[in-house]
Amino acid sequence: MACAEIILSIIAKGVLDKIASLTFSEISMVRGVNKEMEKFKKTLSSIKAVLSDAEEQQVKNHTVQDWLEKLKDVVYDVDDVLDEISTEVLRQKVETHGSILKQVDNFFSHSNPVAFSFKISRKIKDIRERLDDIVLERRNFHFKEQVVDAQVQNKVREQSHSFMRESDVIGRDYDKDKIVELLLSSSDHESLSVIPIVGLGGLGKTTLVKLVYNDERIVRNFELRLWVCVSQEFDLKKLLEKIIKSGTGANCGYLELDQLQTCLRDNLNAKKFLIILDDVWNDDPTKWIELRNLLSDGANGSKIIVTTRSTVVASIMGTTQSYNLKGLSNDECLSILVKFAFKEGDAKRYPKLVDIGKAIVTKCGGIPLAVRTLGCLLYMKIEEREWLYIKDNEIWKLEQKENDILPALRLSYEQMPSYLKQCFVYCSIFPKDCEIGRVQLITLWMAQGFLLPNGSRQQLEDIGNQYFNELLSRSFFHEVNEKFDAEVLMCKMHNLVHDLAQLMASTEYLNVDFNSRLVSERVRHVSFIEYDLYEKEFPMPMLNAKKLRSFSFSYQVGPISKSFLYTLILHFRCLRVLDMGGAEFEELPSFIGKLKHLRYLNLSWNRSLKVLPNSICKLLNLRTLHLYGCEQLRELPRDIGKLISLRHLYLTSQSIGLPEKMFEGLTSLRYLWFQRCNRLVSLSEGIQHLTSIRRLRMEECHSLASLPSGIKHLTALEKFWITDCQELNLLEGEDMKGLKSLQSLAIVGLPKLVALPQGLQQSAATLQYLTIQNCQGLKTLPKWLEDLTSLRRLYIRNCPTLMCLPQGVHRLTALQQLSIRGCPQLSVRCERETGEDWPNISHILEIYLDSVKIK
Fold first, then answer.
1. What are the residue boundaries of the NB-ARC domain, all occurrences included (predicted)?
2. In the predicted model, is pLDDT for residue 716 greater than 90?
3. CA 421: distance to chain centroid?
4. Considering only CA atoms, which of 406, 422, 417, 420 is closest in space to residue 374?
5. Among 134-148, 225-239, 332-346, 835-849, which stretch is predicted with the lowest mean pLDDT?
6. pLDDT of residue 401
7. What is the pTM for the complete model shown?
8. What is the pLDDT of residues 15-50, one digit of tens each?
9. Of 12, 122, 777, 791, which has the fewest beta carbons less than 10 angstroms from its beta carbon?
10. Can you tell me the distance from the alpha carbon of 595 to that of 573, in angstroms, rounded to the nearest whole number?
């Protein structure tokens, strides 16, 4: 089943579900809508049954292809009409019955119910006529009805095995030692040398270099180690920003090129460094020479490793002979397949499957990524027919380049359930090699309606997590970055996996730049791949895609013109996602309120934005609002409490307080993050109304002195992170005794903290992850810490006055990991065998003292 039909099938299912769930208010909104929707439901259900056959026929019949495209347009339009009806119901709810507003005001435009009914009726009539024509045309094709989207049984690998760790690397010990030898064998009197590592995509060049990069011999011999993923955009300014960030952690996108080169040379000056330039495609010698000249200020013996698929690139950049990485042997590939396809030790029980596996790996060309992906596909499948299906599949016969792994990846794609395929394809809007935030991705899926409830009362965020973990378990994500509480924060897609997503994205997804000349009206999702938009106009060809549902900037583009911004917002009224993160402008136009379908609005890192129009509060479908990094933002709109669908709010502002009664309306909030709200003195007691909130983060709110007593009512709160709030004293006011669902707690950078809040005892049965860092005033841990019977990880860092652990810590039988760093006296007491606290902690599986694993 190809992607175009998958998307159509999923959209049709979503529309049918919406029709089935129409409320009385929505039905009564438009005269005759119930009758029309029943017709839509009957027609779409019958058409949905022939989609699979239509997809097969369209390969040889372009008329069928056109029929499918017209059908998709109609289904999208039905979805938009249903959205308009539900939005009008929401508007009336807020205007007359909302929890914020007790009387009608002039905030919303005076909607004429008769005019609205007439407008929608006219749209439905037009759609009805188009759909009737499509039904008549269908008779010409004699489609067969088939079962659409038979669910693929998903057995998700346990999270601890869902991505590659260093211990999962097979067959690269020899290569690692050879490259380490190359790095260390040359004399320190030599000038800067560049070692290219060349190999096909998916061979594991990046994985190999990571092993080298973290090898103890390399760590000891190089004062500075820097890692930069280059990819296809060899832009000097961007590369300098990445190198500096790798060395210092600082974002310096605001610096000019001359300032960047000065900063870089200062950081490298007289230091012996190792720089990894991963995944290089640039074959322009002048660009490389320009960068190399800026990397020549280090000490003698400095090295650069370049990974590339191109021998041309290697010859341009290398000062030594290239290291040509070879494919793994069939035996090594079989070891990888077994590792990922079976639970440990189970392979011995299925010798016939292993024999079939031997034939499968011979088709993979010795490429680990292909083998690992197929291993994940076969995980816990014990029927011979399932393994033979992979071995004998026709996809292997597709035309391909030598050792191309797309057939192997596509096999895994074809075996996904369609709801997962849609989410995977959406990942093609991200640039190659970029870090993808897990929560960001889930909220984007949510905005597009990709997260399908299964009939239970499962939260949308939980469904999104399930989808993400399924893709992770199938090796479609890699380079996973976990936080202390084992939650995945960021990930990447391998370039070849990204290629697959783009291949399957059909005509609905498009990367656009100023050179794009043809943009189809059927494009629904656009990623704008330009760096510099200063004083540039909006590209006219894009205006053809008037039904666009997603628009995003691929990079931090900096200042954009008012005309560019106005054209973008005025022209695309069907947008669900508007991602302008990294774009800079002083004011958002008031007509932003006309984007009634909008679910996701990202304005983050806009250092020029000073005000938001109150009309933004008309976006009643908005679920995600990103305002972090908006350092000049003076305050929130007074009516922000009317965003009754808002689930995720990320905020940076200069406001001293929040709008009155703001929280009383935001009762749908699940995630709330205050970042760098430096002037925020207090939070409203109205926070008690956020009874659905699950995550609360307060970061660098330096003026915040105490938490409101209403926080004890946040009974659904699962994750609470407080970071670098210099004036905050958790013991003032009410404590945290109401946080009965708390699972993850981070207390970081609170110099006034002298003891943990007593109320945390109420979280004894639920708290699993606790980190306490940079709290110089903390001298003791409470005795009740030993009551946290669910605690799995405990991190204590840079608390120099902390003397000892509670005596009853031995009772924490669920504790699996203890990490202590920057606590001199406590570390001594926890030393293996000799420390006074050792008998109390010896039962813990993993113990780290000052980053050294002692158990």
1. 173-344
2. yes
3. 16
4. 406
5. 134-148
6. 55
7. 0.82
8. 888 887 777 677 777 777 778 888 888 888 888 778
9. 122
10. 5
Look at residue 533 in the predicted model and tell me its pLDDT: 87
Question: Tokens in use for 767?
Answer: 């708290």
Which residues, 6+ apart, have CB-to-CB distance to 531 below 8 Å? 235, 238, 555, 557
Tokens 């250092």 label which residue? Answer: 607
Query: Could you tell me if residue 365 is left (phi over 0), alpha (psi between -120 and 50 degrees) or otherwise beta?
Result: left
* Residue pair 418/470 in contact by the 8 Å Cβ criterion: no
Tokens of 621: 């479908």
Q: What type of residue sits at position 652?
A: T
DSSP summary character for residue 153: P
Q: Between β-strands 488-492 and 436-437, what pairing exists: parallel, antiparallel or unpaired?
A: antiparallel
Element of type H or E holding 460: helix 460-473
- What is the total residue count of the chain? 855
Residue 270 has pLDDT above 90, yes or no: no
Helix 33-48, helix 3-20: angle, nearest 10 = 150
Beta-bridged to residue 650, according to DSSP, are 626, 673
Is 70 exceeded by the pLDDT of residue 2? no
Its sign, for the CA torsion 89, 93, 96, 100, is negative
Amino acid (1-letter code) at residue 673: W
Which CATH number is associated with domain 172-324?
A: 3.40.50.300
Query: Residue 722's pLDDT band (boundaries 50, 70, 90)?
Result: very high
Q: DSSP states of 155-207 as a string? A: -PPPGGGSS--GGG--S-HHHHHHHHHHHHHS-TTS--EEEEEE--TTS-HHH
Beta strands in 728-791 (DSSP E): 744-748, 769-773
What kind and span of H or E run contains 84?
helix 62-92
Rounded to 10 deg, the angle between the 495-504 and 418-426 helix axes is 110
Within 10 angstroms of residue 182's Cβ, the number of other Cβ atoms is: 18
Report residue 74 CA to chain centroid gap: 31
- For 598, counting Cβ atoms within 10 Å of its Cβ (0-12 exposed, 13-18 middle, 19+ buried), the class is buried
Tell the burial category of 142 from Cβ atoms under 10 Å away from its Cβ (0-12, 13-18, 19+). exposed
Helices (H), 647-732: 662-665
Hunting for tokens 């292909």 — which residue is that? 370
**Phi, psi angle pair for 332, to nearest 5°:** -65, -40
Measured between its terminal Cα atoms, the distance across the chain in Å is: 50
Is residue 21 packed enough to be buried (19+ CB in 10 Å), middle (13-18) or exposed (0-12)?
exposed
8 A C-beta contact, residue 170 and residue 327: no
Render pLDDT for 674-703 as a digit per residue (tens, 0 to 9): 999 999 998 888 899 999 999 999 999 999
Q: Is the pLDDT of residue 748 over 90?
A: yes
Residue 492: strand pairing partners: 478
Are residues 715 and 739 in contact, defined by beta-carbon separation less than 8 angstroms?
yes
Instruction: Determine the residue type at 155.
Output: K
Q: Which residues contact 42 (CB under 8 A, 6 or more apart)?
A: none
pLDDT value at residue 100: 42
- Max mean pLDDT range (69-83, 379-393, 435-449): 435-449
Asked whether the predicted pLDDT for residue 105 surpasses 70, the reply is no
CB count within 10 Å of CB 12 equals 22
Structure tokens at 364: 């993979």
pLDDT for position 819: 94
230 contacts: CB under 8 Å, gap ≥ 6: 239, 277, 278, 279, 280, 281, 282, 433
In tens, the pLDDT along 282-321 reads 888 888 988 888 888 888 888 999 998 888 888 899 888 8
Which region among 247-261, 517-531, 639-653 has the lowest average model confidence (pLDDT)? 247-261
CB–CB of 363/408 below 8 Å?
yes
Q: Are 777 and 753 in contact (CB under 8 A)?
A: yes
- Supply the mean pLDDT for the chain: 85
In the three-class reduction of DSSP (H, G, I as helix; E, B as strand; rest coil), residue 445 is classed as helix
pLDDT at residue 149 tops 60: no
